[in-house]
Amino acid sequence: MSTTDWPLWEVFVRPRRGLAHTHVGSLHAPDAELALRNARDLYTRRQEGVSLWVVPAMSITASSPDEKDAFFDPAADKVYRHPTFYDVPEGVAHL
Amino acid sequence: MYGNDFSEPPEQPGARSLLDQVADAERDLELAAQQDRPTGTEDDYFMAVIAADQKIEPRDWMPEKYRKNLIRQIAQHAHSEIIGMQPEGNWISRAPTLKRKAILLAKVQDEAGHGLYLYAAAETLGVDRAELSDMLIDGRQKYSSIFNYPTLTWADVGAIGWLVDGAAIVNQVPLCRASYGPYARAMIRVCKEESFHQRQGYEILHVLSHGTPEQKAMAQDAVDRWWYPSLAMFGPPEGESPNTAQSMAWKVKRFTNDELRQRFVDMCVGQAEILDLTLPDPGLVWNEAEGRHDYTQPDYDELFRVIKGNGPCNRERITHRKAAHEGGQWVRDAAEAYAKKKAKVSA
């Protein structure tokens, strides 16, 4: 019955006082311009934001939850990446 | 208020409003996301996430039955929003004042938005919206029984807001804590907007019931016709609801149909008094010992007839949806052809 299959777009909104765009959901639209207009109507009806990004879902690559431990593991054994790892001699100011 | 404290009667002084409960659910969802995830493989991990009240996300492993059950529930929820635009849309051109008309338009626009949030949530489970739309049109998937009843007067728009959206909220507030992340997040968004729908409906009835005797009679007639179909929205009673036990074990549902129905009745009694309208149930009395109202159950035979496609407006609703879909085919084709052409030009 449905012969048209519009691509899926992921929608990101930056709130009025927000620093970054946040993912709010997704929608189907034939092109970027209509995706943007529909996202405006759908996700900012109540002044939720001042900036919108739409991205074709096909363009997003996500990390896999199956390998998340191995994938994010290296961070844990590099404690020297944190400033608290380092001893600061007593009496040093502004460090 | 936390999780299962939901059963606290809302009319108690100091009880949290439904909107507060939605805010609580949203806060808990954010807190849960900050906790360490359980470890383990497949089933262990899945059950541990649910036990810890954390959320299953689209790329997590999940039992096939969980996935299927969620697709069914979320899709039918989405369909209900889309079909639900029809009974109210019926009164847009005939709304009695410009203000009421603008409100009704905004409300129907919200319903379309709710449909889209929900289709998007369903799609994270690996189905396609176009496929779900087809399943609605050819009757393989259902939508809420309530939208198969006709809107005969302007007061019906008020009764739908108060009773139908009210019942929907009572049903949906616990779903803000559903174990599937995308569904819970969609429900939080929906409930916040649904609360506007319920209040505007209540206001319509309140204005009518404090207007002329004719207006009051119209309001009463609408409440009389929508009361039992609204009670039936919570689904069949305990023992006749095939999906309840499994849905509760998976923390998709948090309460039984009967528990939610009871809560709705308890809520409505006080609200009806302030409207100065009566609920059409001579068996409705306060049960002091149980701390709740006794009431007459809706006609479940009627509910099953309606669900099977034989309610007053079933054929009309689907025919209308199908005509819009098929009649709009050339517009979708045009949009697609235009997008292709533009992509070629810019390439």
TrEMBL record, chain A:
Query: Which organism is this entry from?
Result: Longispora fulva
Q: What is this protein called?
A: Ring-1,2-phenylacetyl-CoA epoxidase subunit PaaB
TrEMBL record, chain B:
Q: Which InterPro entries match?
A: Aromatic_CoA_ox/epox, Ferritin-like, Ferritin-like_SF, PaaA, PaaA_PaaC
Disordered as annotated region, ranges: 1-20
Q: Which Pfam families match?
A: PaaA_PaaC
State which Enzyme Commission number(s) the record gives. 1.14.13.149
Q: Which GO terms describe its cellular component?
A: cytosol
> Which GO molecular function, any one, fits this protein according to its record?
phenylacetyl-CoA 1,2-epoxidase activity
UniProt entry keywords in alphabetical sequence: Oxidoreductase
List this protein's GO terms for biological process: phenylacetate catabolic process
Q: What is this protein called?
A: Ring-1,2-phenylacetyl-CoA epoxidase subunit PaaA
What organism is the protein native to? Answer: Longispora fulva
